[in-house]
Design brief:
This protein has 301 residues and is an all-alpha fold. It is 84% helix and 0% strand. Helix 4 packs across helix 5 and helix 5 crosses helix 10.
Length: 301
């Protein structure tokens, strides 16, 4: 039994996949706290799809795919900001238009140059077949994101909660806005190999949303999200060996299971806790009314 469980660790590609997935999952989880509080879930989805044409063009030009994806993500974010500032179109509509346009351009480029590029690899990821140079790129991008978060996490937190107050205390909110978008695009690029463009958004949103249900303190939220991101990513990569399934799919399914568990059983913000509070409030209201104590007592019996 133990020998069977240790079998995946006998293969170098599995060890690489587990470790790289865990590292990237942790970084995505930290950033997901900001994305969740800022309400930028759609932005993460948009950037994860908008990097596809950059990946294709980088491959065609013989450049590292991360460079093309990063530039493409920033261009998409800039396009969204330009359209939003120049028109009265709602932000969700702008995001929908821009990310589908970029994603369609990527699919078109792949269909025009199908010989060297695999749409499946870009969309679904291929962490089990990741090359050493791609590992270095992903780890370097993730490490840079960690450094920025460690240095500017307080400024970013104030910007996320209250941009007006952040501006009042002298912070450059425009720079913080661009910084957060840049981190989002860079992390999406780092996670592209692990789970692909379609599932990157789950790693950038789900751990933070789950932690948000479990605590009201931001520091604890980041710790919980990082722990969940690392654990589910490593377990997902490990389980994919036995299931012979998509690594990204396993990772995201595990994260979704944790989210559903928190949604139901979270001690303060869960569904069951909400029902218990509503029931206790109703009983308290009945008890405060004339004859309510008798009714409440009868209910208890």
């Amino acid at each position: 039994m133990i020998e069977t469980l240790l079998t995946p660790l006998h293969y170098e590609y599995m060890v690489k996949a587990i470790l790289v997935s865990g590292f990237i999952g942790g970084v995505c989880a930290l950033l997901s706290c900001y994305v969740t509080l800022k309400g930028w879930s759609l932005m993460g989805d948009a950037l994860s799809h908008a990097i596809v044409p950059g990946v294709v063009l980088a491959y065609l030009a013989g450049l590292p795919f991360a460079a093309g994806a990063f530039v493409s993500g920033l261009l998409a974010a800039g396009t969204m900001g330009f359209i939003k500032s120049r028109t009265r179109i709602r932000e969700d509509a702008v995001i929908g238009i821009v990310f589908t346009t970029y994603f369609a351009a990527g699919v078109l480029l792949i269909s025009l140059y199908p010989s060297n590029i695999s749409l499946k690899t870009i969309v679904l990821g291929n962490i089990l077949g990741i090359a050493n140079r791609d590992i270095i790129q992903s780890l370097a991008i993730s490490a840079a994101t960690l450094v920025v978060l460690a240095v500017k996490w307080k400024d970013l937190l104030l910007f996320v909660f209250d941009p007006a107050q952040a501006k009042a205390v002298g912070l450059n909110t425009g720079l913080l806005h661009v910084m957060l978008l840049t981190l989002l695009a860079a992390t999406a690029v780092a996670a592209l190999q692990a789970v692909g463009a379609c599932l990157v958004v789950a790693m950038l949103v789900t751990p933070g949303a789950t932690a948000y249900l479990l605590t009201d303190r931001f520091g604890r939220m980041m710790g919980l999200a990082a722990a969940m991101g690392v654990t589910t990513s490593m377990l997902g990569a490990y389980a994919s060996y036995f299931l012979d399934g998509s690594t990204g799919g396993c990772i995201v399914v595990l994260q979704t299971v944790l989210f559903l568990a928190a949604l139901v059983f979270a001690p303060v913000h869960g569904v069951l806790a909400g029902r218990w509070k509503a029931r206790a409030s109703a009983q308290s209201t009945l008890a405060s009314q004339p004859g309510g104590e008798l009714s409440a007592g009868a209910d208890a019996l």
